[in-house]
Design goal:
Elements: E1 2-5, H1 10-19, E2 24-27, H2 40-57, E3 63-74, E4 79-89, E5 94-98, E6 102-103, H3 106-113, H4 118-126, H5 136-141, H6 148-164
Parallel strand pairs: 1-2, 1-3
Antiparallel strand pairs: 3-4, 4-5, 4-6
């Protein structure tokens, strides 16, 4: 089986490889069709679906995978959260799955709510570059108990369910 992932981000590619072991995974840069910083579940899921569909149509892969990280306010938990969603398609069927949701610290949430992107905000606060291509905000905000890759593996595996089992 060949799987095309709609991103060249090494963390997203490795997460897809972990969710689809013994499978050829081909990264391809595609547009998500949503803002660089998706806001809310709907926009984040739409970005993941757009990436999966574009990855599939632009390759001769069997499945297309899209992964999108976003931010969303959660009223019941009184805060802004980092959210992660993935989509998988074979062109006819779709699967979607989510990774963990992590509450953003107030100083980060304020900047994100004001319109900044999470990755650059984290880079600025940590005085570094490329956090999104390494441990991600997930790693920083959990003291490295999880990292971005492991969080995204769960989203991709959840989205892949309809293609990995006959339970759907």
């Amino acid at each position: 089986m060949r799987v095309a992932v709609g991103s060249e981000n090494p963390v997203k590619v490795t997460a897809t490889r972990r969710a689809f072991p013994d499978t050829v995974v081909e990264p391809i840069g595609v547009d998500s069709g949503v803002p660089e910083q998706p806001r809310g579940r709907e926009e984040t899921i739409t970005g993941a679906r757009n990436r999966a569909g574009a990855a599939l149509t632009q390759t001769d892969a069997d499945l297309g995978v899209g992964i999108e990280g976003g931010v969303a306010p959660v009223d019941a938990a009184a805060g802004h959260f980092l959210i992660m969603w993935a989509a998988v398609t074979d062109g006819d069927r779709w699967g979607v799955g989510a990774g963990p949701s992590l509450r953003l610290p107030d100083d980060v949430a304020e900047r994100v709510a004001a319109g900044e992107e999470l990755g650059p905000v984290m880079d600025d606060l940590l005085d570094t570059t490329g956090v999104a291509k390494r441990e991600g905000a997930a790693g920083i905000l959990t003291g490295h108990a999880i990292d971005r890759e492991s969080a995204l593996v769960h989203a991709v595996a959840g989205a892949a369910g309809p293609f990995l089992t006959d339970r759907y």
